Amino acid sequence: VAVTLTGDVYTWGRGCEGQTGHRFTDDNHCNKSDPHVSKFACWIVCNHRSRVGQRAEIQLLPKLVVIPSQQHEPAKFTACGPNFTIILTRRGVPWAWGEGRCGELGVGLRIAKQPTPARVCWPDDASKCEFVTCGWAHVLAFDSDCKLFSSTAV
């Protein structure tokens, strides 16, 4: 995962659990609208299985992650667990995607695969999120009042 100086988020690599933030489809292996992707460097969906019943979906080149908000929210930084990604926007809004079987995504559900960014359910009584860090199956976050929040199933 990379965050640019302008706040854009790019991901690449294995995406079986949705951790790249892009929806992989067998009929759309190449994003021809992306100027950074050449006609020879497209999405590759491997023929072997990475887990029983799952394809090993690999994205070779960095691709922009689209945050589905009303306006472009530039990212401040990112944190990653083994199969999930969290970003924090400059406005203090956390977004998550990937595997969330233990509730680590903080989107209100235990979800096997969140393939695209979903807004984290940030507490109404908390001030804006300032920092996030990830562990194996949890996320810790601090708000601007230095209150600690965690996202995981107990």
Topology overview:
Layout: E1 2-3, E2 9-14, E3 44-51, E4 54-64, E5 75-80, E6 84-89, E7 94-100, E8 111-119, E9 129-134, E10 139-143, E11 148-151
Antiparallel strand pairs: 1-2, 2-4, 3-4, 5-6, 6-7, 7-8, 9-10, 10-11
Structural features, described:
The protein has 154 residues and is mainly beta. It has no helices and eleven strands. The strands form three sheets. Strands 1-2-4-3 form a four-stranded antiparallel sheet, with no helix packed on it. Strands 5-6-7-8 form a four-stranded antiparallel sheet, with no helix packed on it. A three-stranded antiparallel sheet has the order 9-10-11, with no helix packed on it. Strand 3 and strand 4 (54-64) form a beta hairpin. The relative contact order is 0.18.
Shape from CA axes? globular
Write out the strand line-up for the largest beta sheet, numbering strands in chain order. Answer: 1-2-4-3
Structural class by helix and strand composition: mainly beta
Instruction: Report, as a whole number of angstroms, the end-to-end distance.
Output: 28 Å
Give a quick account of the main beta sheet: strands, pairing sense, barrel closure.
4 strands, antiparallel
User: What would you report as the Rg, rounded to the nearest angstrom?
Assistant: 16 Å
Number of strands: 11
Order of helices and strands: EEEEEEEEEEE
Helix content: under 10%
Number of helices: 0
Mean pLDDT: 79
Runs in which pLDDT lies below 50 for 5 or more consecutive residues are 26-54
Strand content: over 45%
